[in-house]
Design goal:
Chain B: This is Branched-chain amino acid ABC transporter. Chain B: Keywords: Amino-acid transport, Signal, Transport. The structure holds three protein chains of three kinds. By secondary structure, chain B is α/β, with parallel strands linked by helices. Chain B is built from twelve helices and 14 strands. In chain B, a hairpin with a 2-residue loop joins strand 13 and strand 14. The radius of gyration of chain B is 23 Å and the shape is globular. Chain C has a two-stranded antiparallel sheet. Chain C contains eleven helices and two strands. Classes of the chains: A mainly alpha, B alpha/beta, C mainly alpha. At the B-C interface, strand 7, helix 7 and helix 8 of B face helix 1, helix 5 and helix 10 of C.
Chain lengths: ~350, ~375, ~290
């Protein structure tokens, strides 16, 4: 009976995923307006960014408010490789991921000595320094003028001209990120990360190399953000320092937290919701961001655990399991903050 | 659990579809507009990209006023080839990133025949690769960077390149007897290009640039470090290659630490906003510009009169450039028809267009040559400079 | 050497303003352990209120400053009631998000009401600079330095020599014990926000006058710097915030003069990272007795 239930559950899950995937694949064929495709591409980028930050801030529990720096480094590396060295996009994209991963290593090192808010400040400082270097190192980056005219990607003889190929590219990148993140968090390494986020001392005590865990998660996270940056550079065809500011870091963090920390669907939902709301509010013109700010406050007050919090979910599952085994009275013991079934 | 997952996926899809429907609502409105105008015999659409909000929103407003005046005039005169002109105004916030987005929007909208914009050199350089890729002609109105000469065959400007203006100011300052000059420049295509041309001209004329410092448009507010460095270098005059906002702040903060010198400026300073913001500190400032109400051309007088009648204000130089650019494009559409390529063909051969800012002829780089006027702020007003 | 002293004066001026703003961050952090990200934007609103009082209501500078501080203090209390109190027991990240929501709201509110352009601040504080050798000390600099030192002295007296101040320190030391001792923690938090916001308004107005520029996103850079100063001094510590502010102002200005003006802010952040790595709790954090 139980097996059957689990089977149906999996089956329904898989169907839902397949249906969603099918919808995502045919969207460009149904939608002709370039603006909608543009919004979807941006959402794809947000998904990659929030998933990558989720690894560091959600699973490993290291608050980072400088994620846009990785995004920016990736964008500039791709732009410079393609503009100055005529490197093809297919090489430039992974290269920018690797270069960014190196900066992830650098930012991971301070976790040796710092944690919590103080680490957050270091990530903030890192983000600002990266932006200021992009702004002032004008021999290479052209400073505030940015780098215009980044060529469109070419695959063999095919040149990306319209938005549709960019849409499929970002879809592929986002799916790869989802798969990679799933592999990582479900592995032994992923469990170590969660252990580090829960109790670093205890993790150390059971033989987890916590420093290595933290630095690795920064490296992996930076890699994906760098790839997202590389995509952004060729998609917009222009990069400038003001696309990678503190506010951009904060927006990504917001997606992760609002979606629910340490949860892959959470990060995706967070990215989609926070990416869409400003677009949906566009009809309000100048009131748009005003409403958006107010909405943010309202949402966190009424939904302080995020849309899809893994921590709470796990706890609920355990509780339910216990209830099912008649070890607990489901009516009297109710975990705090349980997401009710009707939600 | 399964119910929850399904519910969330449903919610996700709902949100997605809501986005599309919501978006379609907006889109529907637009197409409705289009079909309505098509019923009236179609319309000519021209894109306008300017800094309507942001660090130099004051300039954006005069640009908007000027192009709307040009639209009104051409439509009153019967439109172009019997069709009414409709301008599509898009805000680039003087931000290259926004400019790229605006350019992408214009480029993908097939009904846009040509574009007036952008205003700053950096926004023009961010947009021009996109316009050139799809073959959409655009006329820049304030962008004076020498780099724009090479931006592509679809890029034009009705303002003179800095390589000319920079040399002009350098000559002027040497004529006035200044030898040791401090230079503050806006760190972008405009200020930097200008400062470079200016510096080499000054040095070739026997003067010296004793200190040169960049600042960032819309971001630098604290000029104390720059001013302290200038003071230490002991210059006899200051040249500002930038915009009015920063110039006013620089001079006001300079007063606080005892920095007072004869000041010369590039044409970016030529705005009444400079006097509004700078007050007494900008009195006596000298700068260049291609348009002034006391100039003798009939086109300039007509434009000033029409602008004043419509808005009750004096137009500034950027209004004049925007007005001319819009009229040049109307002329091109009149001659080339509703075809982006033909419009560009006409523009490459444009000769002696008489406008508010003088006579415009495009060379093979899409550049034009106009002699700037020497101006000075006297009693809180820009006046023609007389030695 | 003249340049050194001139930049020292410039640095102290800016530093004293950073210190004023940093106090708001540090006091709130001391009690609630949250980073009040809307602090910079409360500062910006306070500055605009001051500007309106001067230009529309034709108040003189000092009364305008005081009234603006009062109004902004009330606003600070309201922001805490609406956006922070409901999420006080939730995860700290949630409070951070709420603060960001407030921040976005305030900036866009200001842009709607006052536009995106930069406004000059006509304070009518004239007078010639004081000249010591080659070093000029502007009247505005004296004002900025004087007002901020005065306010900091006032805060010092308040925190150390009034009953309310003692209650604030007790709450900062341990919220639960303070509650057991009969301290109304909610009131203390309101007072903390009021003081922090009032000081921010004063700092904002002084910045607006000093640079002669008031604009909706001014809170961002001012807030970021002040926040850096608070962490530099050891967040939660009042003397730390003052020291951190002054130190940051001087170091970044000297750095700007001798290294590069463009990298001024980068110097500030690099310094912050280095100090944190050497002393992870800031210069005067944790061991400092006097905490609010």
């Amino acid at each position: 009976m139980e097996h059957l239930a689990r089977f149906t559950l999996n089956w329904r899950n898989k169907t839902a995923t397949l249906v969603l995937l099918a919808i995502l694949l045919v969207i460009p064929l149904l939608v002709s307006n370039e603006y909608y495709i543009h919004v979807l591409i941006t959402l794809g980028l947000f998904v990659i960014l929030s998933l990558s930050l989720n690894l560091v801030s959600g699973y490993t529990g290291q608050l980072s408010i400088g994620h846009a720096a990785f995004y920016g480094i990736g964008a500039y590396v791709t732009a410079l490789l393609m503009l100055k060295l005529n490197v093809s996009f297919l090489l430039a994209l992974p290269a920018s991921g690797l270069v960014t991963a190196f900066f992830g290593l650098l930012l991971g090192l301070p976790t040796m000595r710092l944690a919590g808010d103080y680490l957050a400040i270091v990530t903030l400082g890192f983000g600002e320094i990266v932006r200021l270097v992009l702004l002032n190192w004008d021999k290479v980056t052209r400073g505030p003028m940015g780098l215009p005219g980044i060529p469109a990607p070419e695959l063999g003889t095919y040149i990306f001209m319209s938005k549709t190929p960019f849409y499929y590219l970002v879809l592929v990148l986002a799916l790869l990120t989802v798969l990679a993140m799933r592999r990582i968090v479900n592995s032994g390494f992923g469990l170590s990360l969660i252990a580090v986020s829960q109790d670093e001392l205890a993790a150390e005590a059971v033989g987890i190399n916590t420093l290595r865990c933290k630095i690795s998660s920064f490296i992996i996270s930076a890699f994906f953000a760098g790839v997202a940056g590389g995509f952004y550079a060729v998609y917009i065809s222009f990069v400038s320092p003001d696309s990678f500011t503190f506010m951009d870091s904060i927006m990504v963090l917001e997606m992760v937290v609002l979606g629910g920390l340490a949860s892959i669907p959470g990060s995706i939902i967070g990215a989609v919701v926070l990416g869409l709301v400003p677009e949906l509010l566009r009809f309000m013109a100048e009131y748009r961001m005003l409403i958006f700010g107010a909405l943010m406050v309202v949402i966190v007050i009424f939904k302080p655990d995020g849309f899809w919090s893994a921590r709470k979910r796990t706890r609920n599952a355990i509780m339910k399991d216990l209830v099912a085994r008649n070890m607990l009275d489901g009516k009297t013991v109710k975990p705090r903050g349980e997401v009710s079934e009707s939600a | 659990m399964s119910r929850k997952i399904t519910l969330w996926l449903c919610a996700l899809m709902l949100v997605l579809s809501a986005a599309l429907v919501g978006g379609c609502g907006g889109g529907g409105e637009k197409s409705g507009e289009e079909s309505k105008s098509a019923g009236e015999g179609g319309e000519i659409k021209v894109g306008i990209a300017g800094p309507f909000t942001g660090a130099i929103a004051e300039t954006g407003t005069t640009i908007k006023n000027a192009v709307l005046l040009a639209e009104e005039q051409v439509n009153k005169a019967g439109g172009i080839n019997g069709k009414q002109v409709k301008l599509d105004l898009q805000d680039d916030k003087a931000d290259p990133k926004e400019a790229a987005a605006v350019a992408n929007k214009f480029a993908s909208d097939k009904s846009i025949l040509a574009v007036v914009g952008h205003y700053t050199s950096s926004t023009t350089l961010a947009g021009s690769p996109i316009y050139n890729r799809v073959g959409l002609s655009h006329i820049g109105i304030g962008c004076t960077s020498p780099a724009i000469s090479d931006a592509g065959p679809f890029t034009y400007r009705d303002i003179t390149s800095d390589s000319y203006d920079g040399e002009f100011v350098a000559n002027w300052m040497i004529e006035e007897g200044f030898k040791n000059i401090a230079v503050a420049y806006e760190n972008d295509d405009y200020g930097k290009g200008l400062a470079e041309v200016y510096k080499s001209k000054i040095e070739s004329l026997g003067g010296k640039v004793v200190a040169i410092e960049p600042y960032n448009l819309g971001e630098t507010k604290d000029f104390s470090a720059i001013l302290t460095k200038f003071k230490a270098a002991n210059p006899d005059s200051l040249f500002i290659a930038g915009q009015y906002n920063e110039a006013a702040m620089l001079l006001k903060q300079g007063k606080g630490i005892g920095f007072k010198l004869p000041v010369f400026g590039s044409n970016g300073l030529y705005s009444d906003a400079l006097i509004k913001l700078g007050g007494a500190e900008v009195e006596g400032l000298r700068c260049v510009g291609a348009f002034h109400k006391d100039s003798s051309s009939q086109e300039a007088k007509d434009f000033i009169e029409a602008y004043k009648a419509k808005y009750g204000l004096e137009p500034d130089i950027w209004a004049a450039y925007a007005y001319d650019a819009a009229n040049i494009l109307f002329e091109a559409i009149k001659n080339g028809g509703e075809d982006r390529t033909k419009i560009n063909e006409y523009l490459t051969t444009l000769k002696d267009f008489n406008g508010a800012t003088g006579v415009t002829s495009f060379d093979q780089n899409g550049d034009c040559m106009k002699d700037p006027l020497k101006l000075i702020i006297k009693d809180g007003k820009f006046a023609l400079y007389q030695k | 050497m003249d340049m050194f002293f001139q930049q020292l004066v410039n640095g102290l001026t800016v530093g004293s303003l950073y210190a004023l703003i940093a106090l708001g961050y540090t006091m709130v952090y001391g009690i609630l352990k949250i980073i009040n990200f809307a602090h910079g934007d409360i500062l910006m609103i306070g500055t605009f209120i001051g500007l309106v009082l001067v230009t529309k209501f034709h108040l003189a500078f000092v009364p305008a400053l005081l009234v603006a501080m009062l109004i902004t203090a009330i606003m600070g209390i309201l922001v805490e009631r609406i956006a922070y109190r409901p999420v006080r027991t939730a995860d700290k990240l949630i409070a951070l998000l709420s603060a960001l929501g407030v921040s976005i709201f305030l900036v866009n509110f200001a842009q709607l009401v006052w536009g995106t352009a930069t406004h000059p601040f006509p304070a009518n504080i004239g007078g010639d600079p004081i000249i010591l050798g080659e070093v000029h000390i502007g009247i505005l600099q004296i004002w900025a330095l004087g007002v901020s030192l005065l306010l900091m002295a006032g805060l010092h007296l308040f925190v150390n020599h009034t009953q309310m101040g003692v209650a604030m320190r007790a709450t900062s030391y341990n919220v639960d014990y303070a509650r057991l001792m009969g301290i109304n923690v909610d009131n203390i938090i309101s007072v903390t926000f009021a003081i922090g916001s009032g000081l921010a308004a004063a700092a904002g107005i002084l910045i607006g006058v000093y640079y002669d520029a008031v604009y909706p996103v001014m809170g961002y850079s001012a807030g970021l710097k002040a926040f850096t100063a608070a962490v530099l001094g050891g967040i939660g510590s009042i003397p730390g915030a003052m020291l951190g502010g002054l130190l940051l102002g001087v170091l970044e200005n000297e750095g700007a003069a001798y290294l590069s003006a463009g990298y001024k802010d980068a110097i500030a952040f690099a310094l912050l990272i280095i100090i944190l790595l050497i002393k992870p709790t800031g210069l005067m954090g944790r061991n400092e007795q006097q905490k609010v």
